[in-house]
Design brief:
The radius of gyration is 30 Å and the shape is globular. It is built from 14 helices and 22 strands. By secondary structure, it is of the alpha+beta class. Strand 7 and strand 8 form a beta hairpin. The chain folds into 3 domains: 91 residues, Beta Barrel (OB fold (Dihydrolipoamide Acetyltransferase, E2P)); 229 residues, BirA Bifunctional Protein, domain 2 (2-Layer Sandwich), CATH 3.30.930.10; 116 residues, GAD-like domain (Gyrase A, domain 2, 2-Layer Sandwich), CATH 3.30.1360. It binds aspartic acid.
């Protein structure tokens, strides 16, 4: 139907007769007998000069045949790539009429998100989404290419499976042929990729859809897409190299230059310096250790297991009300309080607690933090875990740049703890990653062997794993680890997690079986493509890079999903609904 795309026309085509297909982006009358129609397709827009009597309106679908002509002097539009030319002598064929669109399609106008999703097929015509989805397609393609050139084989894994624990709730699908039984949708292909390593596939990858029933946020949807990979006979370092290569190639394809990789931080260092396991290193304000300064302090509140501080340059301009609000936030995040200190001329600290501190303590605070007049210092004293958490959040609240500033700061966080806490209900540890993660070689001994007594909570919580995360500008892009490939080690971890033998067999018997038949050492990784693309597009919300996302409450205003199903379907599945509460 067409010879060219609208956005591709340039002076090189002057004089050519072209046929174009697209939507009317805008119509302006030009004198009594002519009209300018901006015709839009996926590639951009071009101006067509049409007979004023042709009845075409916004979003009509046209086929226009005409001549590429130079625009008259003074009428060029440098804002658009086709701005030097226009199409004249147009024959216009209306392929489809359009009612006035219910949402404006200009990128300059903010539209209510619910309306955008209700009319997503119109929203998709906007330049922002056209651009974002093109970027997404590019990123997918570059990642595929990169994985393939590193020897990875694309293998598809099933969507209807038994549960794979990744720490979220499963979406379940009732079985018609086995009433009363349910499939889970994959929270990840984790166990299948490990089994494909046992199956000798050596290097697996997949651009995989994963489903997790957890609360939606700016960086989280029920279903998301990840680059999922696994390799045999490799170290964690090797896996990080593979993934580094893929993400840097993806970033380069979008930005035109290859960002520098910032290297590795241990989990502990990330926590100590940034109060986070996904540090945003685009700005300073690092956490500074003050504990030794107060070893013998008279001020009770600072005689705590840990005292740390951050320095906000120029923060002294904050009002008392703002400082009080920050204190309230710190309390909500779990601190007993927040001590603020305004730094005045001569290094004098103006703070409600100054009078409780010795002159020496005050001056050590100033020198340790390298404080300058005009700064505000924020101190928290508590358990180390609480101090890091609260100051980490405060640092972000005070200093985090907008999403599209500060470049791309990729880094790896390594040596994650094996367990992230103790479950108050079961008394057992909670895995920090998933239960298939190999403990750190230096810590594996202290976990004991199958059937040994369970080590103390302190020992468990101090154990590191061989898990690592990829972080970009404070977003966790993904996680991976060296896996357990020995049945006895896997069973010991299940045992520590309080998963008894019967449950192990029921849920993971197939994996333990597989480990009996020659499992190679293996390691892998997965990172969220939605998140990577969002950051590459400078978007705060992954919805902007997903063609058909759900709202914050998990609904699809376009198709109305989730919907009720009819009685016949329920009967077939052997399901009866409880009355609505
Ligand atoms: N299965 C993990 C996840 O989806 C990633 C991995 O360990 O490879 O987060």
């Amino acid at each position: 139907m067409r010879t060219h795309y609208c956005g591709d026309l340039r002076e090189a085509q002057l004089g050519a007769t072209v046929s174009l297909c697209g939507w009317v982006a805008r119509r302006r009358e030009h004198g009594a007998s002519l009209a300018f129609v901006d015709l839009r397709d996926r590639s951009g827009v071009v101006q067509c000069v049409v007979d004023g009597s042709v009845d075409v309106r916004n979003e009509y679908v046209l086929r226009v045949t005409g001549t590429v002509t130079r625009r008259p002097d003074g009428n060029e539009n440098p804002e658009i790539p086709t701005g030097a030319v226009e199409i004249t002598d147009c024959a216009v064929e209306i392929l489809s009429a359009s009612e006035p669109p219910p949402i404006p399609l200009s990128d300059r106008i903010d539209v209510d998100e619910n309306q955008r999703l209700r009319f997503r097929y119109l929203d998709l015509r906007r330049e922002r989404l056209q651009r974002n989805l093109r970027t997404r397609a590019k990123v997918n393609s570059v990642i595929r290419h990169s994985m393939e050139s590193q020897g990875f084989l694309e293998i598809e894994t099933p969507m209807l499976i038994a549960s794979t624990p990744e720490g979220a709730r499963d979406f379940v699908v009732p079985s018609r042929l086995k009433p009363g039984s349910f499939y889970a949708l994959p929270q990840s292909p984790q166990l299948f990729k490990q089994l494909s390593m046992v199956g000798g596939m050596d290097r697996y990858y997949q651009i995989a859809r994963c489903l997790r029933d957890e609360d939606l946020r700016a960086d989280r949807q029920f279903e998301f897409t990840q680059l999922d990979a696994e390799a045999s006979f490799v170290s964690g370092d090797d896996v990080r190299q593979f993934i580094t290569e893929a993400v840097l190639a993806a970033a380069e394809s979008v930005t035109g230059s290859r960002p520098a990789f910032l290297g590795d931080l241990t989990w502990n260092e990330a926590q100590e310096r940034f109060g986070s396991d996904k540090p945003d290193v685009r700005f300073g304000m690092e956490l500074v250790e003050l504990t030794p300064l107060f070893a013998t302090t008279e001020f009770n509140a600072f005689r705590a297991p840990c005292v740390k501080a951050i320095r906000e340059p120029g923060g002294a301009a904050r009002t008392r009300k703002q400082l009080d609000e920050l204190t309230e936030n710190a309390k909500r995040w779990g601190a007993k309080g927040l001590v603020w200190m305004r730094v005045e001329e001569g290094g004098v600290l103006n703070s409600p607690v100054s009078k409780f501190l010795s002159a020496e303590e005050l001056s050590s605070i100033v020198s340790t933090l390298e404080a300058e007049p005009g700064d505000v210092l924020y101190l928290v004293a508590d358990e180390r875990r609480v101090v890091r958490h609260v100051l980490g959040l405060l640092r972000l609240a005070l200093g985090r740049p907008p999403v599209n500033e500060g470049g791309l700061n990729f880094l790896w966080v390594v040596d994650f703890p094996l367990f992230e806490g103790i479950d108050p209900e079961t008394g057992g540890p909670i895995p920090a990653h998933h239960p298939f993660t190999m403990p750190h070689p230096e810590d594996i001994g202290s976990l004991g062997g199958l059937g040994d007594v369970v080590p103390s909570a302190d020992v468990l919580l101090a154990s590191r794993s061989q898990a690592y995360d990829l972080v970009l500008n404070g977003w966790e892009l993904g996680s991976g680890s060296v896996r357990i490939h020995r049945g006895d080690v896997q069973q010991r971890i299940f045992e520590l997690l309080g998963i008894g033998e019967a449950e192990q067999q029921r849920k993971f018997g197939f994996l333990l079986d597989a480990f009996r038949y020659g499992a190679p050492p293996h390691a892998g990784f997965a990172f969220g493509i939605d998140r990577l693309v969002a950051l590459l597009c400078g978007e705060e919300n992954i919805r902007e890079v997903i063609a058909f996302p759900k709202t914050q409450s998990g609904l699809d205003p376009l198709t109305n999903a989730p919907t009720e199903i009819d009685q016949r379907q329920l009967n077939e599945l052997g399901l009866r609904l409880l009355p609505k509460a």
